[in-house]
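Structure, all two chains, one model.
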Amino acid sequence: MKRYLIFLSKYKKALILAPLLVVIDVICEIVQPKLMSTIVDQGVRQKDMSFILHTGAFMVALSLIAIATNVGNIFYSSHASVGFAAELRKGMFSKIQEFSFANLDKFSSATLTTRITNDVNILQDVIMMSLRLLIRAPLMLLFAVIIAISINAGLALVIAVAIPVLATCMYVILKKGFPYFEKMQKKLDKVNLVVQENLINVRVVKSFVRETFENKKFGHSNNELREMAVKASGMVVLIMPVMQLIMNLSIVAIVWFGGNAIIKDTFQVGQLMSFITYITQILMSLMMLSMTIMTFSRAEASSDRILEILEAPADIIDTASAIEKNLQITLGKIEFKDVFFKYHSNGAEFVLKGINLVVNSGETVAIIGATGAAKSTLVQLIPRLYDISSGKVLINDIDVRDYTLFNLRINLKLVLQQNELFTGTIKQNLKWGNQQATDDEIIAAAQDAQAHDFIMSFPLQYETLLGHSGINISGGQKQRLCIARAILRKPAILILDDSTSAVDSITEAKIRASFSQHLKGTTIIIIAQRISSILSADKIVLLDNGAIIGTGTHDDLIKTNLVYKEIYNSQQLQL
Amino acid sequence: MSNQETLTSQTTKVAPAGMPGKHGHISVEKPKNSKEVLSRLWSYLSKESAYLFLILVLLNINITCTLIGSYLLRPTINNFIIPRNISGLITMILLLLIIYAIGAIAGVFLNRIMILVAQKTISNIRVDLFSKLQSLPLNFFDSAKHGDLMSLFVNDMDNVSDALNASLLQFLTSSIMVIGILSLMLYISPLLTLVTFIIVPFMLWVASAIIKKSKGFFTTQQKALGEVDGYVEEMIIGMKVVKVFCFEGVAEKNFESLNYDLRDKATKAQLYAGVMQPIIQNLNTINFALTATVGGLLAIFKGFDLGGLAAFMQYSRQFGRPVNEISSQYNTIQSALAAAERIFQIMDELAETSDIPGAIDLVDVKGNVEFNEVTFSYDDDKVILKNISFCAKAGQKIALVGSTGAGKTTIMNLLPRFYDIQAGHITIDGLDIMKLKRGSLRKALAIVLQDTHLFKASVMDNIRYGKLEATNEEVIAAAILSGADSFIQRLPKGYHTLLQNDGDNLSQGQRQLLNITRSIVAKPVILILDEATSSIDTRTEQTIQKGVDQLMKGLTCFVIAHRLSTVRDADEILVLDNGEIIERGNHETLLKQKGKYYQLYTSQFD
């Protein structure tokens, strides 16, 4: 709870006023039955018309005040709760911006999204309820009990019995029902899994003619879900009738005891009527309270998920000395000195083992190796997307940790394997590479990435919308746009992580040609599958299982390195 | 992959129907044609009409008991308490106990039966929707978003289920209750009921005014919420790119403005949604106050009996709740109807065309495939394939090459009739595939795709998917043949290892091997390899190649490949461009032609 206070700090006024208004509201409401009873017991009995009229007017006035305080309360509590949610979302979003790749790997993007949307909404409801129901229900309960006792302490014993009985019933029902809901959720997930698998595997299902089989599978999960749902909801729907029964029994008890008291002249009809109303109110408040508490207990899971984000240590941040020095990257010499790396500090095995490598400024270096050789990992250490476990990564002989993240990354462009374009026009997307780029620069970059021609084939050309409401582009086109985006600034270092896999080889060759023409000073690191893509590299680095097992030009390696030769042969033709 | 995760995580919400916590999130959706949706829902519900009738009876018993119980206050006070008649009081108390007990029993049964009916209905709808999906043609899945289809099962079903579980009954109860209370009020004192008749229309007017206002705010809130959610999702999926491009600052700024826009709109929406219930409640309190006042005056001047007043006051207090319920359930029911409408829309989609009358079973297939002047387009406007003709003899290997979008995969989707052609003929062993039973046609084929998707089941069952009645021995034999056996043996539980999340505990190469093994078990005659090894590095590919070779043995094979090294030994290579075959021949002759193939090939091996 403490952790959330800062998100509420803007709304102090609302946090104080909302509960205060609830108190006034409760007082206005709680005296109504009592006033009504005086109308009957004093007004009617003594045939005092003006008393009746005055009391009636007073009751109406109280209701009007109650309306005003209610509107006020809701005004302030929605301000506070919605504002809280907005601040919390902002805080989480900023926090996620600070996340390193290691942080991001830990949370899948989907769970991050649901946390920042659904879970925050749930907490918003909690704040709203706290400022209203959570104060109102116990106050109502308390005041109603006090007034009931003041009317007739003896009769209040009925309340003393009814409250624990109702509380026990609610407890038992919820306690029994809740595990059913958890089980039902699991069954529901199972049903959804079948649906999801079928959507993804639609070709497999159809080609093996397994429609009937899948229908049966679904039917089975669906029946399990239905049975559990009947059990779970079957418990919950007991609440209302049980509540009704306890309430009615209490009323009967009050009519019996109260009726006896009236007969003995120690009680009055009006009081009996108001007493019935109070006991109704008490039991309703009690039910409200337990429902609220239950909602809160469910919100706990959301809160945990949110805190997990807020409290995750952002592990890659600027060092003080880096901020002070504010070094820029102009040249692209890269050096790995005895680098060891693993993703989790408690991981058993190093992913990269004793990497030593020098890439001179302006060189083109290719990295090849089997899937899982840690090629992507290696290059992601350069812009500090992960921090190394031991050793050193230097750019222009300065440790990467001595640059600020911004200076380091702005002149070093990495085209990731899983690359994303964003909702917006093609031009807006390309401008990610350089916000200040002119149209000519954008076109030049697109031409170099062999993207210009297909962009011009769209009716809206560079203003074509991508993303949700936009057009669909092919994988190869997407990769070319990503490359254009990366080279827009003419970075000192360009890293292409298998980023032309969906581009056909003719186009790929053209991209390489334009690089050597227009990105002369840029250090280029290419991760590739096809040896044909990297034949012209200044240096080829062969990575296997996290270690470098060969470095040199193609001609060197083909002579000296067996593994390289094997890969080469596997791709080579037998002419 | 990430898309998939979004879907599963959406399903993890625990919100039992009819419990608080959903307040404030009024939905503003409306069905386009309520009548139609209602009548279709009714066709499901009416299967349980006996139960529904019972529910209606029990509901009436329950409400009658409640109302009579309150009414009995009148004679109790008038005839027994005021005249001090203890024995009469005892009788009345016993009567009350009996009535309330009956009411409670009716209440319990009523609610439980309703749950049974609701769950049975929703379960029937789910099954129908699922089997409808199974029957839909492939192009439906190409154009529909997975997320939207998932949402039908996750969100829309949930809405309908909530409405059936709780809202429907509450709506009915409240409506009957209002009528019941009003008639009893009229019976006790028509004059006093007048007060209610003045206040109630006012209450309804206020309620509808607030609802109208709040709907507008909710629409704008929903839009702002959609924008925030969309932005968050997009930025988080692209987070790594954001970091690489140092875009954090811009992202935060953009988010902040969307976020505050949402806050301002949501505050208004919350306010309007929130005030309705207390305002109605307090108007009812005013009604209560006025009734007490007028009732008191009537008691003095017209001799209105105290018992009647007491009963009347009870009703007057009870009156607010059903009115409130009706207005709040109305929205839930509307959005449930909108959800049901979306579900029914999918159910109305055209299924795969059924087999023509007299369609024959494809048996003892040899594997001669012929395409004759085949022309195809997805939706009439743009021709995707033009005049495709080729012939594959049994046991031959045919390769299809060409750049992305040339139509290679489309051709191969025609053979199993995933799509039906507009002109030309496709024959297998001389039989037109249109005249074959679709199931028997597909059984003769096996397709190995680039994307390897597995099911959450054991390795054994995943392989067995190729042939459900395959014995364990058959499965293992196939795995040995494909070379998958060695890695399966090393899995924690061997063949009984459960594959999680689309098999993400396996490497891509291993998943592809399972895929191939699955096809071996299926014993096809014709095999389609659609970029089966494209996403695997060349060394891993070599290990898989053994499996592929085993699978291909003796089959008619169609190979679509990116890496031309894998298609060199094909009997015929078809080079496609823009939906047409522009070159054909074996590797050597094509190279000699120095055309497109030569270009593609040399650029890969220069």
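Chain A touches chain B through 178 residues (CB under 8 Å).
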